[in-house]
Specification:
By secondary structure, the protein is of the alpha/beta class. 26% of the residues lie in helices and 20% in strands. It contains 10 helices and 12 strands. It has a 7-stranded mixed beta sheet. Strands 3-7-8 form a 3-stranded mixed beta sheet, with no helix packed on it. A hairpin with a 2-residue loop joins strand 9 and strand 10. Helix 1 packs across helix 3 and helix 7 crosses helix 9. The radius of gyration is 19 Å and the shape is globular. It starts with a helix and ends in a 6-residue tail after the last strand.
């Protein structure tokens, strides 16, 4: 017997998620395990549970979009980030942002307003865009069976902080198919670092900092080990850790706890209200 929709919704409640949350979910269907009705039941559980909130899934296309494949059609283009986002984006009432490489599918409260304007972005996670808006919306990030190497929000933190050597110097001309069928030109820069081309693989170095400060906690969904993050908390902790050396994720093999030992953040992970959490690590 696999997990039922009721089982999955109960796990969301046990994790401390609220029906009114704005939540971005990165996911691995394989990690969730055996579910009655498979992926459709997972999406049913998420959409029913967050019916009063805003549900977001990444529908990225960075893997295929580029100079040789420059036209992004949000109605037809498959996402490169797994099964669940591709099924979700096709569901009735789900909207997809018009970002050519880092689009997001949205369903729920004020979905259209949340994703508006992404066709005007010229970087993957432009300040003020869909990812950056998470912290302003009191949003949460649920990593289902994946780690922070899939936590795109951290890219947006780096962009807001203007961390050097994270983007290509030269933009690529791409085209977005607009709702009226016209094509809008967009000059898009890409994630790039000469030392570590896949910079997100280094985001795991921040994991303990997020746990220690209360910006993230471990939860379960199906069989999957998950990480539930407070977006504003992740922003603040990352800002403090990177402050002495903005490129430390690439240049330092290990980030020492001194970087976050006295970080005080706001987090909503354990209550309906936002709680003040002070982290004072000793002995380091």
């Amino acid at each position: 017997m696999g997990y039922t929709k009721k089982d999955l919704m109960r796990q969301l409640e046990e994790a401390g998620l609220q029906h009114t949350d704005t939540v971005l979910i990165h996911s691995s269907m394989k990690a969730i395990g055996d579910v009655e009705g498979r992926a459709d039941t997972v999406l049913d559980a998420w959409m029913e549970y967050f019916a009063q909130g805003l549900l977001l899934l990444p529908t990225h296309t960075w893997a295929q979009m580029g100079e040789s494949y420059p036209v992004f059609d949000p109605e037809r283009e498959e996402a490169c980030v797994g099964l669940l986002p591709n099924l979700f984006r096709k569901r009735k009432g789900v909207l997809r942002s018009l970002h050519p490489t880092h689009s997001v599918a949205a369903w729920g409260k004020e979905a259209a307003a949340y994703i508006a304007g992404e066709e005007n972005c010229n970087t993957p996670c432009t300040p003020g865009g869909c990812y950056d808006r998470l912290r302003q919306a009191g949003g949460r990030i649920l990593l289902v069976g994946v780690g922070h190497e899939r936590n795109t929000f951290i890219h947006s933190v780096e962009e807001v902080l203007n961390v050097p050597n994270r983007l290509t110097d030269r933009p690529v001309l791409m085209w977005v198919v607009m709702p009226d069928g016209s094509k809008k030109p967009v000059y898009m820069r890409r994630h790039y670092n000469a030392v570590q081309p896949y910079i997100s693989e280094e985001f795991g170095k921040l994991s303990q900092a997020f746990y220690d400060t209360g910006a993230a906690k471990r939860v379960r969904f199906g069989d999957a080990d998950c990480i539930l993050c407070d977006a504003a908390g992740v922003f603040e902790v990352t800002r403090h850790v990177l402050a002495p050396n903005p490129e430390c994720l690439v240049t330092e093999a290990v980030i020492l706890p001194e970087r976050w030992a006295r970080v005080t953040i706001q987090t909503s992970l354990n209550s309906n209200e936002r709680l003040l959490v002070s982290c004072e690590l000793r002995g380091h």
